């Protein structure tokens, strides 16, 4: 149901191209889209019926903003910038970097050939991407043996080992003519572009000559090189008659999911395939366009000489933005490849649906059980908190994150509590960690969770709600996870009256709550132990005369434990910048304590 404010804004939308930003009740941007006509596109979300992810997104929209542009091309560029800046939940999002290795011929007076993961505009020649690092390394080693450039560090007045092995042109002791390098680089480029016939003929002649000269080890080495060409370089079937480096994209869409296949065609062969699956909000053409532009905006990616796309995409705009020809094949090998990519995309998505059906109860199905029991609309992201201390000492808090029922460990956070006077004060601990966590998210414009789980009862829940509602003006539901007298997950607390919400102990929703509670407790306890252990070590070192904070930190950084410090030599302790008298005192003190500890362990 749209609000009156949204209805008024819909009436004022212009008939111009641009981008729109959908926002939830907390002002968080949850989707960014582009349109040739903002009025028609944005109104369609609120005036038409939807299903799946579109319906879920529209249900959460409380407001929207628009940014008009002068052309459709500008709206493409603006959309990618906004997606990368805000990382909206409902958009396709690609990481800026990839792990694909490339082979690089450096742009130097004495060029080298190497493997790199960083593409720079440095005049070098890059070839790839390779399917994996092993394939790139094997190709590199082969080239270094057959077409050597420079393997050494440069001029050193004498031939290097690689020169004697025939794998360096000799920049180590002489000036190599530029023409020699150019000739080798030409052969390397030809080889990397799939022209293997000439090098095979050359190697075969060398192998026969070595065999005739009774140089059987040399002949065996050349035989292995020929075998490498056959099993690695020529392993892939030739799929085109020309050597143009090109990337091919195709997709299959069904039930709100987009399955994408990317074929990397190099050396006239299909060198690598990348596959992606996304639940999407917009049309297939719009989502594919966004994917392709983000794909080439990543750091470790070089553009091919040609991009092949299926029918229905804005080839002209994509070509203008990327600066390479973009075509839709109509016949022959390229059309067959496009069909193969489509079939693979369809196969991949159908497999995904089968797996989704099996996992539904364990992940999003479990989330739905929880939200239904709480009387809430669809939720995706849960952040759960727990506190830990030993008799009030070294108080810490920890947070874990679950999205659609799965733990996302890279989003976990640890907190050393700073403002809690009474270390056993659960309410004060909760106030501090909630304040720190969500004031920071608001300040940085980061996504907020749909639910907050507190591992505890009414005290923690009331404290969390107080900070969220009265200090930060946030309306995030807070849920308490209750344990029984056996310290096992029992049920949930929710609402202003903190009433009990019972889940079936045999349901997937109950198991998910149990997993969240166990995980946040484990994470908090592990963090507390590491802090407490470090403080214990620090306090024992502080008891030694002459050891101040700086000396203590040096020792802990170098050795990590009292036993290792006690076992160290006085000279090694002195090497850290500690005077001899203090080093000897540290050694004697810690050895004495270690001996006492060993004696008590034998009693």
Automatic annotation (TrEMBL):
GO terms for cellular component: cytoplasm; excinuclease repair complex. The keyword DNA damage applies. Residues 15-92 form the GIY-YIG domain. It is found in: Cytoplasm. InterPro entries: GIY-YIG_endonuc, GIY-YIG_endonuc_sf, GIY-YIG_UvrC_Cho, RuvA_2-like, UVR_dom, UVR_dom_sf, UvrABC_protein_C, UvrC. Its main location: cytoplasm. One of its GO terms (molecular function) is excinuclease ABC activity. PROSITE patterns: GIY_YIG (PS50164), UVR (PS50151), UVRC (PS50165). SMART domains: GIYc. GO terms for biological process: nucleotide-excision repair; SOS response. The keyword Cytoplasm applies. Residues 197-232 form the UVR domain. Residues 248-468 form the UvrC family homology region profile domain. It comes from the Bacteria. Keywords: Cytoplasm, DNA damage, DNA excision, DNA repair, Excision nuclease, SOS response. The UvrABC repair system catalyzes the recognition and processing of DNA lesions. UvrC both incises the 5' and 3' sides of the lesion. The N-terminal half is responsible for the 3' incision and the C-terminal half is responsible for the 5' incision. Belongs to the UvrC family. Interacts with UvrB in an incision complex. This is UvrABC system protein C. It comes from Limosilactobacillus mucosae LM1. The gene is uvrC.
């Amino acid at each position: 149901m749209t609000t009156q404010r949204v209805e008024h804004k819909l009436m004022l939308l212009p008939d111009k191209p641009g981008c729109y930003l959908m926002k939830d009740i907390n002002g968080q941007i949850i989707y960014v889209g582009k349109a040739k006509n903002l009025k028609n596109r944005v109104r369609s979300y609120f005036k038409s019926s939807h299903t799946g992810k579109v319906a879920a997104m529209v249900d959460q929209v409380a407001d929207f903003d628009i940014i008009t542009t002068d052309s459709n091309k500008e709206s493409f560029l603006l959309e990618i910038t906004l997606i990368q800046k805000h990382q909206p939940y409902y958009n396709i999002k690609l990481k800026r970097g990839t792990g694909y290795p490339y082979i690089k011929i450096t742009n130097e007076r004495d060029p080298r050939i190497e493997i790199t993961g960083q593409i720079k505009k440095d005049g070098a020649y890059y070839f790839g991407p390779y399917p994996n690092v092993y394939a790139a390394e094997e190709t590199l080693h082969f080239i270094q043996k057959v077409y050597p450039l420079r393997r050494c560090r440069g001029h050193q007045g004498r031939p290097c080992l690689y020169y004697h092995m025939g794998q360096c042109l000799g920049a180590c002791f002489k000036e190599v003519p530029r023409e020699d390098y150019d000739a080798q680089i030409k052969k390397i480029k030809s080889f990397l572009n799939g022209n293997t016939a000439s090098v095979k003929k050359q190697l075969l002649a060398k192998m026969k000559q070595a065999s005739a000269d009774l140089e059987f080890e040399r002949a065996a080495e050349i035989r292995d090189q020929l075998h490498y060409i056959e099993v690695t370089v020529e392993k892939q079937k030739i799929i085109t008659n020309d050597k143009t480096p090109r990337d091919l994209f195709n997709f299959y869409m069904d039930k709100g999911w987009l399955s994408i296949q990317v074929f990397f065609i190099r050396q006239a062969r299909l060198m690598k395939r990348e596959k992606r699956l996304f639940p999407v909000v917009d049309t297939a053409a719009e989502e594919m366009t966004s994917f392709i532009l983000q794909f080439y905006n990543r750091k470790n990616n070089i553009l091919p000489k040609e991009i092949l796309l299926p029918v229905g995409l804005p080839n002209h705009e994509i070509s203008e933005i990327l600066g390479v020809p973009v075509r839709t094949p109509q016949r022959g090998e390229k059309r067959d490849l496009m069909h193969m990519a489509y079939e693979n995309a369809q196969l991949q998505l159908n497999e995904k649906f089968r797996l989704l059906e099996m996992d539904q109860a364990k992940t999003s199905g479990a989330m739905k059980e929880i939200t239904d029991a709480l009387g809430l609309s669809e939720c995706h992201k849960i952040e759960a908190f727990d506190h830990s201390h030993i008799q009030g000492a070294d108080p810490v808090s920890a947070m874990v994150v679950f999205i659609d029922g799965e733990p996302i460990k890279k989003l976990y956070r640890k907190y050393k509590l700073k403002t809690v006077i009474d270390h056993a004060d659960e309410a004060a601990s909760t106030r501090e960690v909630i304040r720190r966590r969500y004031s920071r998210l608001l300040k940085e414009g980061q996504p907020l969770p749909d639910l907050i789980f507190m591992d505890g009862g009414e005290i923690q829940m009331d404290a969390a709600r107080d900070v969220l509602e009265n200090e930060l003006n946030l309306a995030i539901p807070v849920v308490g996870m209750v344990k029984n007298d056996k310290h096992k997950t029992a049920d949930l607390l929710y609402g202003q009256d903190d009433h009990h919400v019972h889940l079936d102990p045999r349901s997937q929703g109950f198991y998910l709550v149990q997993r969240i509670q166990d995980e946040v407790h484990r994470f908090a306890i592990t963090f507390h132990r590491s802090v407490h252990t470090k403080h214990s070590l620090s306090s024992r070192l502080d008891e030694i005369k002459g050891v101040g904070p700086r000396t203590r930190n040096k020792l802990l950084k170098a050795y990590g434990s009292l036993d290792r410090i006690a076992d160290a030599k006085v000279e090694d302790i002195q090497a850290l910048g500690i005077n001899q008298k203090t080093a000897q005192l540290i050694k004697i003190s810690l050895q004495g304590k270690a001996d006492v500890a060993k004696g008590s362990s034998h009693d």
